[in-house]
Amino acid sequence: MPHNDRTPLAHRIHTHLFSALLFITLAMFSAFSHAAEEKPVAGDQQKASYAALADILQDDKARAELIMHLREAARAEPAAANAETKMNEPQAEQLSLIDQLVDTTQQTASGIMKRVQELKNTINSGPQHHFNAARFFPALGYFLLTVAVTFAFFHLIRRLIGPLYLRLGRWGNHARMKETHWYKLPASIIGAFAVDLGILLLTVAAGNLFAQYVNGGSPLIARLQALFLSAFAVIEFFKAVLRLIFSPSFGYLRPFPLADVTARYWNTRLAWVSGLIGYALMVGVPVVATQINYTTAAVVNFVVMLALTIYASWLILHNRRTIHHEFNQLAERSMAFFSVILRALGHVWHLLAVSYFVVLFFLSQFDFAGSLRFMMAATIKSLVIIGLGALISGLLSRWISRRITLPDDVNRRYPLLQKRINSYIPAGLKIIRVLVVLSVTLSLLDAWQIFNLNKWFMTETGEKVISSLGHMLFILCFAIVAWTLLASVIEHRLAQELSNGARPSARERTLLTLFRNVLAIVICTITIMIMLSQVGLNIAPLLAGAGALGLAVSFGAQTLVKDVITGIFIQFENGMNTGEYVTVMGISGTVERMTIRSIGLRDIYGVYHIVPYSSITTLSNYEREFGVYRASYNVSRDEDVDAANAVLREAVEALKQDENIKPLLLGEPTYQGVVGLGDQFFTLRVLVRTKALEQWTVQYALDRLVKNHFAKAGIEMPRQAVQIYKDEAGAGASEAFPLVGPER
């Protein structure tokens, strides 16, 4: 550690000495270049330079200044280089997704050209081995023995474990048939795949143990055995994935509804194709390249891969319509979200499959074994990504179709809470499902090295996009939760009963309803503004423009402004509230709805009227404190006034004794006596004060009682009469005939 601490100091000392020597050398070179012409002068200058340097080194202050100057000169170039690097770094980090895809394409093309040139140089100048039969055939024997023992052990273990697969399949299928414990079938499928992987690991371990002791003591045979075992592990893992998908021998463990014949058909052919390609590229071609020459290996690789690519393309195109039909049938049995994807995939699956083998063919010409490892790794990653994405999307789709049911007491206290939750949760799950699809797409591009997702996350653009997206989702969730809580509290207040059993007053209900509407507008506006700021938009000009626009609108929409202001004053004066019976503009009805610019009235015929506040010049409210029924009755002029008045009092007393009407009366009735005198009748009047909106109920009851009491007392209502004059024998005589008309 002490040595390391002194190392930088020693390095600086050597640097300063080297700089001083360089200065002296330059001075000497300059002096020697002019020695032929000015030898005395050059000698004097050289002496002066030595003397000046000696003085500088002797003086502590001058020596410190020289050291500082040399250090600053040493830092100048690295600092400039770092500044230039920092100036260029943001430009690299600001690359968009499209720019990165273009760069990736260009790098891939240049890499392909480079690999082509390297392959050409390797074929032309690679080591050319001479075929040695005495060494090759014994090695081949040990190699084939290792292959035979490994495959025999692998298939023997699989046959012995067969009953376990059967029990796992029956366990999962039994749960699926009873539609209980939905997790058992996926658990049985994953369990079977884990057993497959365990058998594979056990076989590879046994093969390595066999190769360690049975190799004839030859390093060449050991390398060939290790080469085969590594290829066996990769290829059989891919075949295990195929068995996971198709499960040809155990239909209960098949995750997709495929027929047994179809599953066996595709599993067999894909297993053979993958096995031939894998062992050819990872074992056969490398052996030829090391034991014979690279040219022969390249030819063998080209012929084998071309034949397998042609066969795979023919197999895909031959079954194009069949698989398309299978995709359509699977789409009909799937949820709507997956149905669209499956139908689209049914139209293009053959193009994707053919492209897969064509790409593998071209990559295999540049790298024998590495291309297959890359393709298999990318394929397995793609299958895992698609499987996880399908699983998550399937769960989200199931949850989207479900509805949440709250307890009855919660629904009673918060009437609209359940409806809001069942509208918010599906929308939020759909947004999450879109994000899952986007994540799956980017992950697939990253798996095939088309787009470097991790690198993009580390760039400023990636960090900004992820941060903005997270902030927007948080703000949206916070706004929804805040609105739900506040609106639920308001609705709870509107729906609850007070301690005396009464509901909140009409004014309170009106103000709470208006406050809820204003709160919704405010929360939506603030949320939109904050989300726009997170996107990167500058909302300051937007707010200024909104103010100017509002001013322009206020001039152009004066009626709207007048509606709002008039409505504010009506609420301030408590002119009317929701649920009250009013008359405005000659329209009588119940106030059903009040907004910031108008009211909604429902008249007795069920017609709904919208009346702007600015149109209200006179407002009649029937529900302020009390109501009055002014009862006027016409009695025939021939009747006694006092008797008629006494009968009217009896009818009013009977009204006061009615148990149904008595709670509606306020105070004592006021008898005004005779208030009108006509040719055929006189009018009696009584005023009855009632609760608000109950005057009509009292009217119906009192009119009935007055009619019955007048009839019982023999008091007649006025009748209309006409005079008929006769010009015959009784000329000049007249007779009055009563003409019965409608009672008044």
Question: Any overview of this molecule?
Answer:
The protein has 744 residues and is an alpha+beta fold. The protein contains 22 helices and ten strands. It has a five-stranded antiparallel β-sheet with strand order 4-3-2-1-5. It has a three-stranded antiparallel β-sheet with strand order 6-8-7, with helices on one face. Helix 9 runs antiparallel to helix 10 and helix 21 crosses helix 22. The protein is elongated, with a radius of gyration of 50 Å. The N terminus and C terminus are likely disordered.
List the helices and strands and how they pair.
Elements: H1 2-33, H2 39-58, H3 60-93, H4 97-125, H5 133-160, H6 162-178, H7 184-213, H8 219-246, H9 260-291, H10 294-318, H11 320-332, H12 336-364, H13 368-401, H14 408-413, H15 417-447, H16 453-458, H17 460-495, H18 506-535, H19 539-556, H20 558-572, E1 581-584, E2 587-594, E3 598-602, E4 608-612, E5 619-621, E6 626-636, H21 641-657, E7 670-677, E8 681-691, H22 695-713, E9 720-725, E10 734-739
Antiparallel strand pairs: 1-2, 1-5, 2-3, 3-4, 6-8, 7-8, 9-10
Helix pairs in contact: 1-2, 2-3, 5-7, 5-8, 6-7, 7-8, 8-9, 9-10, 9-13, 10-12, 11-12, 12-13, 13-15, 17-18, 21-22
Signal peptide: 1-35
Domain Mechanosensitive ion channel MscS C-terminal: 632-717
Transmembrane segments: 139-161, 182-206, 226-246, 270-292, 298-317, 337-362, 374-396, 431-451, 471-490, 511-533, 539-561
